[in-house]
Specification:
Elements: H1 3-20, E1 23-27, E2 31-36, E3 44-47, E4 50-53, E5 58-63, E6 67-81, E7 87-102, E8 107-123, E9 131-139, E10 151-160, E11 172-185, E12 191-207, H2 212-233
Antiparallel strand pairs: 1-2, 2-6, 3-4, 4-12, 5-12, 6-11, 7-10, 7-12, 8-9, 8-11
């Protein structure tokens, strides 16, 4: 292959990689979020210390005697504190919602979410080998109703880093959400459909304690200021 053909092939390959790559980095007030917007979770918006996803085609549907169908996807969000001398993350909250429709008792839907937080910087064993990791699985907060009406569903969960004694807080983590949407129809005339329309990861950020020398300096400055004010009033 000539050098020119190699260059052309390399250029085409680079374009293909760029087209398939959809990694986005967005800065919030105290945190930086990096995620892939090509998943079923869609693009996201940042408000304060929360990241909001607005899917537009994350659904499962089954009709007649089609049986069970599954729609599943994963999004990984790398979250980094912008200044860890001031802030650290210690609690992560998940909220998701959507709608569903079940025609009758022989049809059904369901939804689940695996919510996982993994540290890039901390280990949680006495030998310093295994990175800190916490994972939970959550389901819908309400019972699904088979009345052939469009209804809402929601899902909530949280992970508190304080539940692991060697973790407590962190400055750089990966948060993973895996959603599974299920729809099952067993007989002619059955309709089962479920869609996810909204998802948010909220992060509780704690202030770092002021180091003792700095705290003493601030206390001393306050005393000096108080003395100056008293001198002016005398």
């Amino acid at each position: 292959m000539s050098n020119l053909l190699r260059l052309v092939a390399y250029g085409i390959f680079s374009i293909i990689l760029s087209a398939n790559s959809a990694v986005v980095t967005v800065e919030g007030d105290n945190l930086t979020f990096t995620y892939d917007d090509s998943t079923l979770f869609g693009s996201a918006n940042i408000v304060d210390n929360s990241i909001f996803f607005l899917p537009n085609n994350f659904s499962a549907q089954s009709v007649n005697d089609q049986g069970s169908t599954l729609s599943s996807d994963i999004v990984d969000v790398k979250i980094k504190v912008r200044d860890e001398t001031i802030h650290l993350m210690d609690r992560f909250v998940l909220y998701e919602s959507g709608d569903y429709k079940i025609s009758d008792s022989t049809a059904s839907v369901d939804v689940s979410a695996q919510f996982m937080v993994t540290s890039f910087e901390r280990t949680c064993d006495s030998h310093g080998i295994f990175v800190c990791n916490q994972s939970e699985i959550f389901g819908a907060t309400e019972n699904f109703i088979d009345d052939n009406q469009l209804r809402d569903w929601s899902l909530t969960g949280f992970i508190d880093l304080d539940t692991l004694s060697l973790w407590g807080d962190d400055a750089y983590v990966n948060v993973r959400i895996q959603n599974n949407l299920y729809a099952t129809a067993l007989e002619q005339g059955d309709i089962a459909q479920i869609e996810k329309k909204f998802g948010v990861i909220g992060i509780q950020v704690e202030l770092q304690p002021i180091p003792l020398p700095a705290a003493a300096w601030l206390f001393g400055s306050a005393l000096v200021g108080l003395g100056l004010m008293r001198g002016r009033n005398a």
